[in-house]
Each structure stands twice: as C-alpha cells, then as structure tokens.
Design brief:
- The chain is α/β, with parallel strands linked by helices and 460 residues long.
- The chain has three domains: 51 residues; 95 residues, Urease, subunit C, domain 1 (Roll), CATH 2.30.40; 301 residues, Metal-dependent hydrolases (TIM Barrel).
- Helix content is 37%, strand content 20%.
- Helix 9 links the parallel strand 11 and strand 12.
- The longest helix has 19 residues.
Length: 460
C-alpha cells in the first residue's frame, strides 16, 4: 500500500515538475494526519532530489562540431538540468537508474538552430491587410502560439523577431516563463520607419484613418524622432531595433527600393540603440539605402537585394553582417503569380525583387561579406525556414558554413556566443538532430526529427 502511495506521489511530482523545479504537493493533498504529512514531506524531498539529479544521455551517431567545422562520430552528450555537462567518446551509460538515455545513433546531432529574421506573431495570407482592421491583439496573440511551436519543432530554438505589433514582446515573455511552447525570442517589437515608408502601419489606409503616427508607433521624421523611437522600443521591452532603410515589397506603396532615412537619422538610431545595448537590423533592398545603413552603424543588412560591389566592400570595412532571406524572395515571387494573392501595388515589386536575392547572396559570399542565417519566416509559412540552407548551398556556400551561419555566427551577433551555437560543455542544452547527415544531404535540414531546448525534449 505504501509503495502504491509513493508511486502515485511520484507521478504527481513528475507532472508538476516538467521544468525540473520543485513543487510542494502537500497543499494539493487532503492529508489530515500529522504523521502522514511528515512522512509525505520526506518522500517528496527524496523524490524531488532524485528528479533534480536526473541527467539525460544522448547517444549520438554523428555530431556537427560547429566550432571546428567537423563531423564527430559515436559520442555521448550528457545533459543536466538546462546545460551540457559533458561530451564523452562512445556510447556511455549511467549507473543511476533514474537517468534517461535517448538513442540518436542513426541521427546527426547539432546545436539548436538560430534564425535571425522571422516575424513570429503572424503569417502572411491574402486577408492580412483586412485583419489589421478586424483582429484584436488577443486574436493575434492566440494565433501566434502555433507559429511559435511550429518554429521550435522545425529545429529553431532561438529566433530574432524583426517586427510586429508588440504582441511579439508578450509572446517572448510567455515562452521565457514556460507558459507556452516556442523558441527563445529576441524581438524588435515594432519596426521603425518613416512617414509613408515601409514600416508606416497606415500605408494603404483611407485618408480619414491614416492620421499622423509618430515615434511611439514607430514612425520618425527627424534625428530627435529617431532617438525617441528607439527609447520607446526600449521602454516597451524590445531586445533589438529594426529599421526599414528602404522601401519594401509587402507594403502598400509603389517604391520597393528607395532610401527612406537620411544618414543622420540612421546614425541617431544606431547611436541611441547602442547606448541601450541593442543591435540594429536594417531592412534594405536598394543600394543607396544599404550604404547609408552600413555607414550609419547597423549590425545587419536584411535582404540586400540590389547591393553593389561598393556596398559589399563597405560591409567588409564596417563589419556589417548580411542576412539574405533567400526563401522569402522565392516564396513571394511565386505567390505574386497567383491572381489576387497580393495587392496590385505589391505584385510588380515581388516579381522584380524576389528572384534576385539568391544571386546577390552568391556575389556577397564570394566577395567575403560575413553571412548570417535568416529566412524571413512569416512572410511565408513558418516551419519551412530550413529551406534557406539549401538555397545558400545551391550557389556555393559549403554546408558546414551554412550550418555555422545559423549557429556560432548568429550566437555571436546576439552576444550569446558563450551559451548558444555549440555542442560544448557549459553551453545551454539546445540540441537538434536530423535523419541524415546534412553534409551529404542538405535537404535533411528541412526535417528536424529531434528537438531539445534548455534540456527539455520537445520532439523525438
């Protein structure tokens, strides 16, 4: 009887301690006997201690060593709580019967992937513009939950979110607290644009609704506005800054490539952001806007479609990273051929800009520009972010470098290089696996079969 009682208690403790935090269950059980309560407390203490001591042993057939650019064979990764505590040769087992062993002998294991360009709270569909008038923040929040989970299940344990309504900040917080399932999020909150620019939320609205949005809404028209917009993002809880340095494809505006900030405005944004410890991403298609963004001090150029050789040299000179988002270009160009899928102002821009990104990436990579992985998921369906690897490899970037761009490079940009991006002792246990070795079959990156984030297995 006592053994059955202990077994039941253990079941409840396991249920209430999925995140390996102790949860006292005395308050949940109606036990009137002081002796039983005392006995129960000892049982709970014993079981909780054993749960905390529980480690996970991953038997890995192959491991992508992102630090050295090698594929290691027959290793055991030992995970305790949310950290990698050891990597052993061969398939090591534990003497503790409570430890967990996961068989990944036929898989290729690598660090959790990092996508530096997503829009996690939404996903484009032909009703998106109408939704701006019909969907409440709560509607957006509930729909964002599935996008977050899909992204994590695709192997992306960390993302940089580059612009939404502000719901993205609440989503980040909910995931960090363990209330919902999703990747670790570094978010820009609401992107910053200029009046009528790519990030002006009232583009395409009827005149009586347009109003005059300002820095609070992410619209600036001066150096002082620029400072205020950054400080507002900080106040709102954003982790980083996103500006729209040129026109864009998806906005209801004619020009998709013209520069939309003065150099002084960009410098003001970047200087202020850096004071607050924030990195800056610049959406940019046209070459003049790209150059202003680089000289102004941004951290990354997103898309970079029409960048010239001069812009590539500037990127190398200033240490600016290029986030190509090839997948978005291809997906948008394909959808533009479907009648009625996009607004009539979007279609010609999508057809003109989308197909050019991959060729620009090829030139930039060969020129020695630093490449960071980003897919622009949300412009197209979340969960297929892994296609980006194939598109990068298709035009000359070796598979190992593609994977490194989505791990050690992106971790460095996020100032997480000592925690993420490597299978290494002391690092956070963000670990994913594919069926095949991506060095031989890059398409396997589109089908991640195992996902662990912070020591918790979400997919196996």
């Amino acid at each position: 009887m006592i053994l059955l009682f202990i077994a039941k208690i253990r079941y409840f403790i396991l249920f209430f301690t999925k995140d390996k935090k102790i949860c006292t269950l005395v308050y949940y059980l109606n036990l009137k006997s002081p002796i039983m309560k005392k006995y129960l407390s000892l049982v709970i203490l014993f079981i909780c201690t054993s749960i905390i001591a529980q480690d996970t042993y991953l038997h890995c057939g192959k491991i992508i060593d992102t630090e050295r650019g090698e594929v290691l064979k027959k290793k055991t990764i030992i995970v305790s709580s949310d950290k990698i505590i050891a990597i052993k040769n061969g398939y090591v087992t534990s003497s503790n019967p409570l430890d967990i062993v996961i068989d990944l002998k036929s898989k290729t294991v690598m660090p959790g992937l990092i996508d530096l360009h997503v829009h996690i709270e939404s996903e484009y569909n032909p009703q998106k513009y109408m939704n701006a008038f019909t969907a409440n923040d709560a509607d957006l929040a509930f729909s964002s939950l599935k996008f977050a989970e899909i992204t994590l299940m695709a192997g992306f344990t960390t993302v940089r979110d580059l612009g939404g309504s502000g719901v993205n900040i609440s989503l980040r917080n909910a995931i960090a607290k363990g209330e919902v399932v999703g990747p670790r999020i570094f978010t820009a909150g609401k992107a910053i644009g200029t009046t009528g620019g790519h990030a002006d939320p009232t583009n395409g609205w009827k005149n009586s609704l347009k109003g005059d949005p300002g820095p609070k809404e992410g619209v600036i028209n001066s150096v002082d506005d620029a400072k205020k917009a950054v400080r507002q993002r900080y106040k709102d809880g954003a982790d980083n800054i996103k500006i729209t340095a040129t026109g864009g494809v998806m906005s209801i505006a004619k020009n998709g490539q013209n520069p939309q900030f003065t150099l002084e405005e960009i410098k003001s944004i970047c200087d202020t952001a850096k004071d607050y410890g924030m990195i800056i991403a610049a959406h940019a298609h046209g070459d003049e806007g790209i150059q202003r963004a680089i000289i102004g001090g941004v951290t990354t150029i997103e898309h970079g479609t029409l960048m010239s050789d001069k812009s590539m040299e500037l990127m190398k000179e200033y240490g600016t990273y290029y986030v190509p988002t090839i997948t978005a270009g291809k997906e948008v160009a394909a959808k533009a051929k479907i009648k009625g899928y996009y607004d009539e102002l979007v279609v010609p821009k999508a057809l003109a800009i989308g197909p050019k990104i991959q060729a620009t990436f090829k030139k930039a990579y060969k020129a020695g520009v630093k490449i960071a992985f980003g897919s622009d998921a949300g412009v197209y369906p979340h969960g297929i972010n892994g296609k980006e690897f194939g598109y990068m490899n298709e035009v000359g970037m070796p598979v190992m470098e593609c994977i490194q761009s989505a791990t050690i490079t992106n971790a460095l940009i996020l100032s997480m290089e000592n925690d993420l991006g490597k299978i290494k002792e002391g690092f956070i246990a963000d670990i994913v696996a594919t069926e095949d070795n991506p060095i031989d079959n890059i398409s396997t990156m589109e089908n991640v079969v195992f996902v662990m984030k912070e020591g918790v297995v979400y997919k196996n």
